[in-house]
Amino acid sequence: MLSQVKTIGNARPLIRLNLPMPKLIRVTTVPLSLKYLVPGQARYMQEQGFEVIVISSYGPEREEIMQKEGCRHHIVPMTRQITPLSDLRSLWLLYRFFRKEKPDIVHSHTPKAGLLAMMAARMAGVKIRIHTIAGLRFVTTTGSFRRMLIAMEKLTAQSATHVWPNSFSLLDYIKKIKLVSSKKLGLIGSGSSNGINLERYAVTALKEDKLNEAKRRVGYDPANIYFLAVGRIVHDKGIDELLKAFVQVHAANDRTRLILLGAFEDEIDPIRDESKAILKTHPAIIHVGWSEEVEYFMHISFALIHASYREGFPNVLLQAGAVGCPVICSRIDGNVDMVEHEKTGLLFEVRNEKELQEKMELALANPALMKEYADNLHSKVVSQFDQRLIWQQLHQRYRELLGISSTNDN
Hints:
Largest sheet: 6 strands, parallel
Number of strands: 14
Structural class: alpha/beta
CATH superfamily of the largest domain: Glycogen Phosphorylase B
Shape: globular
Number of helices: 16
CATH architecture of the largest domain: 3-Layer(aba) Sandwich
Distance between the termini: 25 Å
CATH class of the largest domain: Alpha Beta
CATH topology of the largest domain: Rossmann fold
């Protein structure tokens, strides 16, 4: 007897022979990651016939996530820091929940959630345990702290049945240092955790009122040239080098401006005191805090600068590529998956403020060339990183792991 699976929206339902819907549990440490790292995935998987539950610690984004994804959200308190007693409690709560729900797949993102969810799922007998690596924190650390972080990554990988880095360069690095057994490694499509929403991140989708608001926030003057940096104001994002490089660029061209779109996280990875002084006193540096509508700031900017020390697959480069904003970024894993030097953007050696300054000056001297690079990057984003394509590829991989025959996604 045939039974039809309930669907959401206009998706074509899967037809299954009186079998229950496969149950998928997605886990991140905080709900903010569900909102920004993998938005839309839970709803899409439900449209394709999965029962989906998402897990994270509590946060103000919880109600919005449940509404937009149309699925259950279960709270398990987790911290981003190393907190042994709290972590043991979180591990126990995850284990009990997995035993109760009996999921077919547990799929985790972010380091702490990965460690706890993979261990708990293994203890609970979940057969398919997937962890996505979107960057490795230990690459910017040293000493005993680095060794501890590496041990935690290895324990996560040992507990998982599948480990999926979200970029080819990160995959190659993991293989090189033998962090994960090669038989567990894989990658979805061309990389990225979630692709890019091309309907949103497009010049044609920009709304005039929001564009005017972005201009108001930066005191926009068409006579000026705006560089943009998007992300947390922390050391690991290369903010120290960026600020020093910009000071030199501005000294040679006083029409240049630097927009910093991000929040301070002083308690975790603070920038240097010298950098704080530059940020507070330099008249051409505009710190506007965080905005969820980064595309508007990209549209009014001459170029995006992404000076990060470490990445998995940077969403900000996808966003810039989709909007058509030229890119200057550090030569690191993740970034190099998107940006090919002097073809889809400009690369500079990580932590090298002098070379960053040179690339900024090169860009200023060659605006037509930067536009050509941006057009090339846009073509790459459209052809390889459409969000729906990434979702389809992920769904197909889930089905293969579950032993379900192939189907056409919507």
